[in-house]
Amino acid sequence: ILEYFKLTPARAPTIGPLITGGGGPPRRVITGSLLENWPLLKTQPDYIETLRAATKDNAAKAQAWIDGLWAAPPNMFFGDVDWTAVTIPNFEPPNPGRIRIGYDHGLSAPSAAVFCYESRGEDIEFADGSRKATVRGDVFVVDEFVAQSKPGVGPKPTMYPADIATKLHGIIERRGWNQRLLIAPGNIADTAIFSPGQNDNRASVADDFERAKIVFEPADKARVLGAAEVLKRL
After folding, report:
1. Which of 25, 85, 218, 219 is buried deepest, with most CB atoms within 10 A?
2. Averaged in consecutive runs of 10 residues, what is the pLDDT profile of the chain (234 residues)?
Protein backbone atom coordinates (compact mmCIF):
# COMPACT_ATOMS: atom_id res chain seq x y z
CA ILE A 1 0.00 0.00 0.00
CA LEU A 2 2.82 2.39 0.88
CA GLU A 3 4.48 1.81 -2.50
CA TYR A 4 1.29 1.67 -4.55
CA PHE A 5 0.10 5.10 -3.35
CA LYS A 6 3.61 6.60 -2.93
CA LEU A 7 2.79 7.46 0.67
CA THR A 8 5.02 9.95 2.44
CA PRO A 9 4.60 11.36 5.96
CA ALA A 10 2.13 14.25 5.87
CA ARG A 11 0.29 15.38 8.98
CA ALA A 12 -1.79 17.98 7.13
CA PRO A 13 -4.62 16.90 4.79
CA THR A 14 -2.99 16.18 1.45
CA ILE A 15 -4.02 15.51 -2.13
CA GLY A 16 -1.21 13.51 -3.68
CA PRO A 17 0.00 13.60 -7.30
CA LEU A 18 -1.61 11.49 -9.99
CA ILE A 19 0.16 8.12 -10.07
CA THR A 20 0.27 6.05 -13.24
CA GLY A 21 1.82 2.67 -13.95
CA GLY A 22 3.10 0.23 -11.38
CA GLY A 23 0.49 -2.41 -12.11
CA GLY A 24 -2.73 -0.49 -11.55
CA PRO A 25 -5.05 2.20 -12.91
CA PRO A 26 -4.27 5.91 -12.48
CA ARG A 27 -4.69 6.84 -8.82
CA ARG A 28 -3.88 9.41 -6.17
CA VAL A 29 -3.88 9.38 -2.40
CA ILE A 30 -6.09 11.79 -0.48
CA THR A 31 -5.29 12.01 3.22
CA GLY A 32 -7.20 13.78 5.91
CA SER A 33 -7.16 14.31 9.64
CA LEU A 34 -8.98 12.48 12.39
CA LEU A 35 -10.20 15.91 13.50
CA GLU A 36 -12.27 16.13 10.30
CA ASN A 37 -14.38 13.20 11.45
CA TRP A 38 -16.68 15.39 13.52
CA PRO A 39 -19.59 12.90 13.72
CA LEU A 40 -17.28 10.39 15.41
CA LEU A 41 -15.77 12.95 17.77
CA LYS A 42 -19.21 14.30 18.63
CA THR A 43 -20.51 10.88 19.65
CA GLN A 44 -17.19 9.80 21.25
CA PRO A 45 -15.49 13.01 22.48
CA ASP A 46 -12.77 11.03 24.29
CA TYR A 47 -11.93 8.91 21.21
CA ILE A 48 -8.49 10.45 20.57
CA GLU A 49 -7.48 10.12 24.21
CA THR A 50 -8.58 6.48 24.10
CA LEU A 51 -6.30 5.94 21.10
CA ARG A 52 -3.41 7.66 22.87
CA ALA A 53 -3.81 5.35 25.86
CA ALA A 54 -4.01 2.29 23.62
CA THR A 55 -0.82 3.22 21.72
CA LYS A 56 1.31 4.69 24.50
CA ASP A 57 3.92 1.93 24.11
CA ASN A 58 3.98 1.85 20.31
CA ALA A 59 4.96 5.08 18.57
CA ALA A 60 4.45 3.68 15.06
CA LYS A 61 0.93 2.56 15.91
CA ALA A 62 0.15 5.95 17.47
CA GLN A 63 1.31 7.75 14.32
CA ALA A 64 -0.82 5.47 12.16
CA TRP A 65 -4.01 5.53 14.23
CA ILE A 66 -3.97 9.16 15.38
CA ASP A 67 -1.95 11.08 12.79
CA GLY A 68 -2.64 8.91 9.76
CA LEU A 69 1.08 8.38 9.17
CA TRP A 70 1.42 4.85 7.85
CA ALA A 71 4.93 5.37 6.48
CA ALA A 72 6.26 3.42 9.47
CA PRO A 73 4.18 0.20 9.51
CA PRO A 74 3.15 -0.47 13.12
CA ASN A 75 3.76 -4.25 12.83
CA MET A 76 0.97 -4.52 15.32
CA PHE A 77 1.18 -8.08 16.57
CA PHE A 78 4.89 -7.81 17.40
CA GLY A 79 4.91 -4.05 17.91
CA ASP A 80 5.77 -4.28 21.63
CA VAL A 81 8.78 -6.59 21.22
CA ASP A 82 12.14 -5.09 22.18
CA TRP A 83 14.12 -6.48 19.24
CA THR A 84 17.45 -5.41 20.74
CA ALA A 85 16.75 -7.73 23.67
CA VAL A 86 16.15 -10.81 21.50
CA THR A 87 18.87 -10.26 18.88
CA ILE A 88 22.33 -11.71 19.52
CA PRO A 89 25.54 -12.03 17.47
CA ASN A 90 25.97 -14.93 15.10
CA PHE A 91 27.28 -18.12 16.70
CA GLU A 92 28.08 -21.67 15.70
CA PRO A 93 25.53 -24.07 17.25
CA PRO A 94 27.24 -26.48 19.68
CA ASN A 95 25.32 -29.37 18.15
CA PRO A 96 24.34 -28.57 14.52
CA GLY A 97 22.50 -31.88 14.31
CA ARG A 98 19.62 -30.26 16.27
CA ILE A 99 19.05 -27.61 13.59
CA ARG A 100 15.69 -27.83 11.83
CA ILE A 101 14.29 -25.79 8.93
CA GLY A 102 11.01 -23.95 8.56
CA TYR A 103 10.02 -23.04 4.99
CA ASP A 104 7.32 -20.92 3.36
CA HIS A 105 7.05 -21.08 -0.44
CA GLY A 106 6.01 -18.24 -2.72
CA LEU A 107 6.01 -17.25 -6.37
CA SER A 108 4.57 -13.74 -6.55
CA ALA A 109 5.35 -13.50 -2.81
CA PRO A 110 8.80 -14.20 -1.32
CA SER A 111 10.00 -17.66 -0.39
CA ALA A 112 11.77 -17.94 2.95
CA ALA A 113 13.61 -20.57 4.94
CA VAL A 114 14.85 -20.24 8.52
CA PHE A 115 17.40 -22.54 10.14
CA CYS A 116 16.49 -22.90 13.82
CA TYR A 117 18.57 -24.31 16.65
CA GLU A 118 16.90 -25.50 19.86
CA SER A 119 19.02 -25.43 23.01
CA ARG A 120 19.02 -28.13 25.66
CA GLY A 121 20.36 -25.67 28.21
CA GLU A 122 24.00 -25.52 27.08
CA ASP A 123 26.01 -22.29 26.81
CA ILE A 124 26.63 -20.82 23.38
CA GLU A 125 29.91 -19.16 22.45
CA PHE A 126 30.41 -16.15 20.19
CA ALA A 127 33.32 -15.39 17.88
CA ASP A 128 34.97 -13.08 20.45
CA GLY A 129 35.09 -15.90 23.02
CA SER A 130 32.25 -14.57 25.18
CA ARG A 131 29.53 -16.98 26.23
CA LYS A 132 25.79 -16.82 26.86
CA ALA A 133 23.76 -19.11 29.08
CA THR A 134 20.59 -20.57 27.60
CA VAL A 135 17.46 -22.21 28.93
CA ARG A 136 16.38 -25.61 27.66
CA GLY A 137 13.93 -24.99 24.83
CA ASP A 138 15.39 -21.65 23.73
CA VAL A 139 15.16 -21.39 19.94
CA PHE A 140 17.66 -19.38 17.88
CA VAL A 141 17.44 -18.52 14.18
CA VAL A 142 21.02 -19.24 13.11
CA ASP A 143 20.70 -18.71 9.36
CA GLU A 144 18.09 -17.87 6.76
CA PHE A 145 17.37 -17.62 3.06
CA VAL A 146 14.85 -15.21 1.52
CA ALA A 147 14.04 -15.16 -2.20
CA GLN A 148 12.60 -11.77 -3.12
CA SER A 149 13.15 -8.95 -5.59
CA LYS A 150 12.08 -6.40 -2.98
CA PRO A 151 10.32 -6.63 0.38
CA GLY A 152 7.04 -8.49 0.00
CA VAL A 153 7.56 -9.38 -3.66
CA GLY A 154 8.80 -12.68 -5.08
CA PRO A 155 12.10 -12.99 -6.94
CA LYS A 156 12.39 -11.97 -10.58
CA PRO A 157 13.15 -14.13 -12.47
CA THR A 158 11.10 -16.69 -10.55
CA MET A 159 12.98 -19.16 -8.39
CA TYR A 160 11.57 -22.66 -8.57
CA PRO A 161 12.00 -25.39 -5.92
CA ALA A 162 15.15 -26.75 -7.62
CA ASP A 163 16.71 -23.25 -7.55
CA ILE A 164 15.84 -22.77 -3.87
CA ALA A 165 17.06 -26.27 -3.03
CA THR A 166 20.46 -25.33 -4.49
CA LYS A 167 20.58 -22.27 -2.21
CA LEU A 168 19.66 -24.32 0.88
CA HIS A 169 22.27 -26.95 0.08
CA GLY A 170 24.74 -24.07 -0.32
CA ILE A 171 24.00 -22.71 3.16
CA ILE A 172 24.57 -26.14 4.68
CA GLU A 173 27.86 -26.48 2.79
CA ARG A 174 29.02 -22.97 3.70
CA ARG A 175 28.32 -23.55 7.40
CA GLY A 176 30.00 -26.96 7.38
CA TRP A 177 26.86 -28.73 8.59
CA ASN A 178 25.81 -32.23 7.61
CA GLN A 179 23.66 -32.27 4.46
CA ARG A 180 21.46 -34.84 6.20
CA LEU A 181 19.90 -31.90 8.05
CA LEU A 182 17.89 -31.29 4.89
CA ILE A 183 16.09 -34.63 5.20
CA ALA A 184 15.87 -34.76 9.00
CA PRO A 185 12.46 -35.34 10.66
CA GLY A 186 11.09 -32.06 11.96
CA ASN A 187 11.76 -29.82 8.96
CA ILE A 188 8.40 -28.15 8.33
CA ALA A 189 6.78 -26.22 5.49
CA ASP A 190 3.49 -24.59 4.62
CA THR A 191 0.91 -27.28 3.86
CA ALA A 192 0.24 -25.70 0.44
CA ILE A 193 3.43 -27.22 -1.00
CA PHE A 194 2.03 -30.74 -0.51
CA SER A 195 -0.85 -30.40 -2.97
CA PRO A 196 -1.80 -31.71 -5.52
CA GLY A 197 -2.85 -34.71 -3.53
CA GLN A 198 -3.17 -38.41 -4.15
CA ASN A 199 -5.70 -38.08 -6.98
CA ASP A 200 -3.60 -35.65 -9.04
CA ASN A 201 -0.69 -36.89 -11.14
CA ARG A 202 1.13 -33.55 -11.19
CA ALA A 203 4.18 -33.20 -8.97
CA SER A 204 3.80 -31.00 -5.92
CA VAL A 205 6.38 -28.48 -4.72
CA ALA A 206 7.20 -30.93 -1.93
CA ASP A 207 7.88 -33.61 -4.56
CA ASP A 208 10.26 -31.23 -6.36
CA PHE A 209 12.12 -30.60 -3.11
CA GLU A 210 12.31 -34.31 -2.35
CA ARG A 211 13.92 -34.92 -5.74
CA ALA A 212 16.49 -32.30 -4.69
CA LYS A 213 17.10 -34.24 -1.43
CA ILE A 214 15.17 -31.89 0.85
CA VAL A 215 12.25 -33.32 2.84
CA PHE A 216 9.59 -31.30 4.68
CA GLU A 217 6.66 -32.25 6.89
CA PRO A 218 3.35 -30.29 6.86
CA ALA A 219 3.36 -27.48 9.41
CA ASP A 220 0.64 -26.90 11.98
CA LYS A 221 -1.17 -23.87 10.53
CA ALA A 222 -3.02 -22.74 13.65
CA ARG A 223 -1.78 -19.24 12.85
CA VAL A 224 -3.18 -17.30 15.79
CA LEU A 225 -1.93 -19.85 18.32
CA GLY A 226 1.41 -20.07 16.52
CA ALA A 227 1.87 -16.32 16.43
CA ALA A 228 0.93 -16.09 20.10
CA GLU A 229 3.55 -18.75 20.91
CA VAL A 230 6.24 -16.83 19.01
CA LEU A 231 5.26 -13.61 20.78
CA LYS A 232 5.35 -15.33 24.19
CA ARG A 233 8.83 -16.71 23.49
CA LEU A 234 10.14 -13.34 22.33
Report:
1. 219
2. 71 80 84 88 93 83 79 63 86 95 92 96 94 94 93 87 96 96 96 73 87 95 82 87
